[in-house]
Please model this.
Amino acid sequence: MHTKIDIYSELRKRLTSNGFDHGAKLRAEVLRDEFKCSASAVREALFRLATVGLVNFQEQRGFRVPQRSGQKLIELTHMRVLLESEGAAMSIRNGGIAWEARLTAAHHKLSHIEKRIHASEDSSGLIDLWFSSEHEFHQTLISACGSETLKQTHSVIYAQFRQQLMKADRKFNFISENIRQHADILDAALAADEILTRERISDHLARHLTGKTLED
Amino acid sequence: MHTKIDIYSELRKRLTSNGFDHGAKLRAEVLRDEFKCSASAVREALFRLATVGLVNFQEQRGFRVPQRSGQKLIELTHMRVLLESEGAAMSIRNGGIAWEARLTAAHHKLSHIEKRIHASEDSSGLIDLWFSSEHEFHQTLISACGSETLKQTHSVIYAQFRQQLMKADRKFNFISENIRQHADILDAALAADEILTRERISDHLARHLTGKTLED
DNA sequence: ATTCTAAATAATTTCGAGATTTTGCTATAT
DNA sequence: ATATAGCAAAATCTCGAAATTATTTAGAAT
Model:
């Protein structure tokens, strides 16, 4: 038996990691079987997901997974740059040793996984691990900013960003560039150089501003 | 008879304009009478409001209006500065004549109301008008930024900001300072001076960063 | 062949009753 | 007096069936 929160998190996970196709219809009456609960419970979860942008809802027409869109990815990337730059700058000012330690740890973990992906032929088993480690690194970057509001907003935007890329990011052609960029961000942050950190976050995300990342 | 969207918007309006006390309990079984509908319909609306931060929800403990909090107001103000500065700068670059015209119009309307409030003894009849005009001016400021995502995020943050202030802003002690600040923002925006516009938006909102605006 | 209409089918939304959980009250013991 | 346990009342949550609305299909007319 699944609890209400399980339904929400399970759906959220699928919506951000290739569990549904873009544009797919999400019928409560169908999903209820998987979760062994009523349609209303699923419906409620879908509603909540709709207000954080991971599901589209239309009156009398049900729920759908948002379509892929180059414009949307550009906007989400822009928001990420805005929020992460600001959050990282604030963390540099307020974070102290504890934050630096957490950031170093998060980078160490991410870096290890990225190197394994870079080395191996078949990286399919490492995808989920990379997604969560990449998320953790970027989350840690802003974790000492002192604003719950900024962190919550970032988490909403990040999930939508991930959803747009759930198909595209699976080939890891970008991985060697990424390894360097993550290290560069870490260095700038540890050097407490706000301007440089902002620049490097911006550079890191720049490849999503070309409108090319969604092409298959 | 009320439709579902009416329930949502009516509750949203009350939650941002002194319709409920801070911390008040929101019982679906009670509110159903006002809307002449089932508790489930109200419950659904409350859920949706919870995910945009206008209502707090706790499992098995129902819904509440968020408490006032100096820290939260500071964070929301900071987010407004971040989003409005960026949105205004982008609008300056992309907006063109049409945007300038809309901004001038919005300012004209707001300015007219602010002067009436400044002059009159009893401004209570003008409160709602001022709220909506002030909102419209700030919304217009970022309206040509080209990013739906930024505009939607701003609208969520703005609503929460307004909710924090729904009691406090009713005395209008700040109004004469505000008249000048809005005019200054308009001037800088029309002069296409991005840096100055950013500064003036920041100055305009600065009084909410002191933690004093919530005191009665 | 195409367009329009109407019936049939399918999907979505509303609703209130029953099940579950929390909260408030009272009695008892320390 | 304070704390605890048990009981009663109230609030919340779940669910499936009924009502509403959308979509598809089939038939008729241009």
Observations:
- Residues 4, 37-41, 44, 60-61 of chain B lie near DNA strand C (CB under 10 Å from a C1').
- Residues 70-94 of chain B form the longest helix (25 residues).
- Chain B touches chain A at residues 4-5, 44, 47-48, 50-53, 59, 72, 75-76, 78-79, 82-83, 86, 147-150, 152-153, 157, 160 (CB under 8 Å).
